[in-house]
Amino acid sequence: MFKLGEVVIPTDQDYEYIRKLCEDNQGWKIDYEKNNLKVWTKQNDLSQFNMIRARAEFNDVSAKVLYDVIQDGEYRETWDSKLDSAIDICYISPNSDIGYFAIKSPKPFKNRDFVTQRCWLDLGENKDKILFNHSVNHAKFPPKKGYVRGLSYITATLIKPTSPNSCILYYVTQSDPGGSFPVWVVNSTTRIIAPKFVKKIYKACLKYEKWKAKHNPSYMPWVNPEQFKMPRIDWNDIQTLDKAQLASNSVDESQISENQIQDNDED
């Protein structure tokens, strides 16, 4: 599997690894279960932040709609209130690119940003869809003033259709938001953040087809790579990802208490 900072063209073996990561129950500890959503955690040596896995059943959302909602950057701007900005930097292959995105953190935390290689594979109508990303270092997008650079060790999505109009979402992530976070933030991820994310993306799916019909309905570069507006990768821009250097530029937020948080996200 890809290492931090490594930029390569994804293979069938990579996608199969992601599928197994999402579906394999071994070593996971159930931390949250309500209605059609389950959330597990797993510890490893990569980070103090656990790996998180969510499984959600969407009984009235097709696999295609869910896949398109995740891929459609223009639509995401309408439903993801945490998104600060997103830029498509360059493409590597018809199903892989490098992108920058910044997310809004609840005050008084600093906002976070990431640079990742993204990969995707749609196996066809009423078949599985797989997406994943990991952090890389691009020369034209160094750490930015006012933001803390985070790391995605792996963030993966597996969408499995259960009928023409229903599907199962698997979502696995292990990320380090950078800086020094208090322990309560780590503990709140499974009981608050993961369920909230699933709820928001489900709501977005219900409105997507009506929205897309009025907003560039034929523009789907994740399906039609000839529609890419970004340049092809310049391999000279790919640099080593130095975790130690990122850590030296981070901030200490470990003393922030839960009652200090100002979060205007109402979803």
From TrEMBL:
List each copy of the START domain by range: 16-210
Name one matching Pfam family. START
| Chief subcellular location | other
Q: What does the UniProt entry say about where the protein is found?
A: Cell projection, Cilium, Flagellum; Cytoplasm; Membrane
What is the protein name stated in its UniProt record? START domain-containing protein 10
Q: Is Transport there in the keyword field? A: yes
Q: Which UniProt keywords apply?
A: Acetylation, Cell projection, Cilium, Cytoplasm, Flagellum, Lipid transport, Lipid-binding, Membrane, Phosphoprotein, Transport
Q: Does the keyword Cytoplasm apply?
A: yes
Cellular component, GO annotation: cytosol; membrane; motile cilium
Gene Ontology biological-process annotations: lipid transport
GO MF term list: lipid binding
